[in-house]
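Lecture notes, structural biology module. Today: joint structure prediction for complexes of two components.
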Amino acid sequence: MSRIQKTFEALKDKNQKALNIFVTAGYPDATRSLEILKSLPSSGADLIELGIPFTDPMADGPTIQDSSLQALENGMSLQGTLDMLTEFRKDNTGTPVILMGYFNPIYKYGCDKFVNNAKTAGADGLIVVDLPPEEDEELRIPAQKAGLDFIKLVTPTTIGTRLDTVIKNASGFLYYVSIAGITGTKSANIDEVAAHIKQIKEKCDLPVAVGFGIKTPEDAAKMSKIADAVVVGSAIVENINKNQSVSNIVAPLSEQVIALKKAI
Amino acid sequence: MEAKNLKVPANSLRSGPDEKGHFGLYGGRYVAETLMPLILEVEQAWHKARDNEAFWDEFNALAKDYVGRPSPLYFAKATTAHYGGAKIYFKRDELNHTGAHKINHCLGQILVARRMGKKRIIAETGAGQHGVATATVCALFDMPCTVFMGAEDIKRQKPNVFRMKLLGAEVVPVTSGSGTLKDAMNEALRHWVAHVEDTYYLIGTVAGPHPYPEMVRDFQSVIGIETKEQMMEKEGRLPDSLVACIGGGSNAMGLFHPFLDDPSVQMFGVEAGGFGVDTDKHAASLTGGSTGILHGMRSYFLQNDDGQINEAHSISAGLDYPGIGPEHAYLHDIDRVQYVSVTDDEALEAFKMLSQLEGIIPALEPSHAFAHVMKLAPTLPKDHVLVMNLCGRGDKDIFTVAEKLGMEI
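The predicted structure, tokenised, for the full assembly:
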């Protein structure tokens, strides 16, 4: 059983929902980014989405855009992201880590080399924002062969037969994008999300995580009632940004993650 | 143009893209899932329009009376004499309404958007020519228009910013990234994701996800189709070579495409070499880039080893893009088109030469094409017939050029 499956089943047994925390690799810098990453599981993150920085993150709002550019300026790269994960795995073997990003850095690195090195580094799954089912074979097939889950994005516009196309080769869990928009902007309409998740559940057994626009413990509490997992990204990155000059950046982050976990 | 003009045999170089939008390895639809249903809807609407005679009747009528098509094919006698080689013709797309070829695909796309029932238009722009053309057709059809433009480009292209505003468009300055065309395109895509219901994204070149490279090419092909007919009238034969500048590649694709199956016709795509393709300040994606994925397509991009996109540089804001349309990438790989580059300085020199030789002030974009003609023409025999696409006029660039030449306006 994969780490992702184990995590969702263990939570289900305890009647709990999963908290997915997104951080940008290398933000605010490589050293502190690793410290933050290491602290997340003990604060309550059940899964971690580790963002591979990219110069042109088309699905992201200003918060994550800025974090990516700063990470890149500080020397982060795709290889650097994998190295960071290798370090993280020295102390943690239980928390699933999903690498999230855009296709170009992966394509440039080489799909086969990437999936093998990502697996060796300790990744459990991939989310590639700009790789819809029409174009995903090039990465999905080697990824799944290497034992990495290929996590699909389902959005408010994924309706009718489109939903079947999207969930067809999904594994790990489904990532439901709760708004038609970019990260860290508007908030979702909970009734619409609930109705759509109900339709998804009728067609697919995978756990459903909801992300985009979830900022506060209150938002997380509401979403956790209708989904298996809640993803918080921009609000975390924003908190890192706010505390860049604080000597112990981990403390305010932990406080935030503990509050989110408590709420769901 | 007619619906039947677009039907070509399967073994033709003009048969691409395949049904998934690929030109060989290139093209495709690399967009976030939120946009996929919409992209599929655009494709359906475009294909329905393309096969409909009434659609082309409407397009042709406006192209004639509103844009002023066909644009003349002009024999440049003085230029030909000056360089003493090839017989040089200019396809005068700078005489179109709004001053460049961009109006061709704007007119076509807004007709598609209307058929889709979309209520508002967004666009990205670099030099502002596409933004002005988009704002123009939006004014014509009374549709709200929002143009995303890099903050840097807004500074470089003030007259076009003013034109867009006069035409009733909202111009949104883009400060993310390098504040130029690629960032404007990112921002337009981000905006589109958040407004999928009522908004049509009117892309300004033969780039982006399928069906845009195909659709924009087909609207721009009016340039090559006219050139072919006009050349038959004037010379009674096909031209020997075609020259066009390339940023994303829309004017070049429009000129080249109808000639792809004529093997005797040589083609030259001229990329912006900036300070030189051996420096890090240029916009020559084919000459100095490598394959990658950005803005919904696989093509050639300026990027580093980590797959991070580099900033492009060109004196011409319209060529200042770190990528190129996927069909150009394909034509490059199969060697059907020769892609070359010229520097900022060479383009400036060409700008001055063309102004003085012919009394035509060209935009900085086709000045790149002319810089290559200046090198090529003297090496060719006198019976060699060359056509250069003069795809835009230079009014918008006089401030940039004056500054470069150290002159005050």
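Point to remember: The radius of gyration of chain A is 17 Å.
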